[in-house]
Write a structure and sequence with these properties.
Largest sheet: 5 strands, antiparallel
Number of domains: 3
Strand order of the largest sheet: 4-5-10-6-7
Radius of gyration: 19 Å
CATH topology of the largest domain: Enolase-like, domain 1
CATH architecture of the largest domain: 2-Layer Sandwich
Helix content: 25-40%
Order of helices and strands: EHEHEEEHHHHHHEEHEEEEEEEHHHH
Number of strands: 14
Distance between the termini: 40 Å
Bound molecules: flavin-adenine dinucleotide
Strand content: 15-25%
Length: 305
Amino acid sequence: MKRTEPLEFHQPTSLAEATRIMLDRGPGGHFLAGGTDLVIAMKEKGLVPKYVVDLKKIPSLSGIREEAGGGIAVGALTTLREVETSPLIAGRYPFLARSAAEVGSIQIRNRATIGGNMANATPSADVAPALLALDARARLSGAGGERVMELRDFFRGPGQTVAQTGEVLTELSIPPQDPRLVGEYIKFSPRDMMDLAYIGVAVTLTLAEAGRRCESVAIALGAVSPTPMRAPQAEGLLRGQVLTEELAHRAGRQASEECSPISDVRSSAEYRRAMVRVNTARALLNAAAGSGPAPWTRRRDRRYG
Ligand SMILES: Cc1cc2nc3c(=O)[nH]c(=O)nc-3n(C[C@H](O)[C@H](O)[C@H](O)COP(=O)(O)OP(=O)(O)OC[C@H]3O[C@@H](n4cnc5c(N)ncnc54)[C@H](O)[C@@H]3O)c2cc1C
């Protein structure tokens, strides 16, 4: 639909003001972060907001910091390029940095925010599986004050979250992890770049010093259910067991049975299930082998060099 009036544009400088504008102005408003989803929806998908509330002038919504006790807090307005290049994240959770690096192109990642990637609630959002595998939490601020929830409870369905009118997603936080934790993110998409995930798999593992017994395990999937999801039954197969190739493949099969993919322009549901099966096993074995940032860096250099 073509807009007949000028766009009403607000730039609040505090969270309280952002919430108040949304509550006063009523339905039809949208928060704006990097705009890489919202502006495309306005230009190409017929979205006609009554008004837009830009969050970028609110201080303290961006930045990555280590918290007392070893957790990491990432402000919702932090760009994906910052997540990708943060020494703290790359050092601690290289697979999370890698998941940010999988989004679009450098130009997109210089604008796109981690909060926008979550709040847009696309099932294929690249950063969601790595955050879910790290048991990340979402912090929201609105008329009723602040609340913190498990990220997995933040998503309600495609394009839908539990945020109430006027509630701003302010932060994603990663609780302290076992220093031995390793992980992997695999985005499966036939194109090298600028394509959404056909499926995404993130895993984290803590392995016993000797014998590769899985002390902790998390498997998170993207693009294969209405929201990014964990695969608890596949995790259950691994917990307390020695990670062998055979077991990794069994867990991959289980994960492919737990998800509920749809067929669409990118892929059939059957193909998505097959890709979950193969790539979950691969992600588990890669993580256990300690696939560090170096091979990935070389791969990115090939892509963008
Ligand atoms: C060319 C191109 C390629 C892309 N490739 C990928 C890809 O490979 N993988 C991928 O995952 N994504 C991809 N995207 C999508 C997009 O870049 C990401 O989802 C991005 O992280 C969205 O963040 P943003 O800051 O731009 O969000 P915006 O567009 O500003 O906002 C998105 C939605 O979230 C809401 N919102 C934003 N921030 C908040 C907040 N703090 N609190 C409450 N609500 C909020 C907005 O109201 C809006 O509804 C691509 C986009 C483009 C244009």
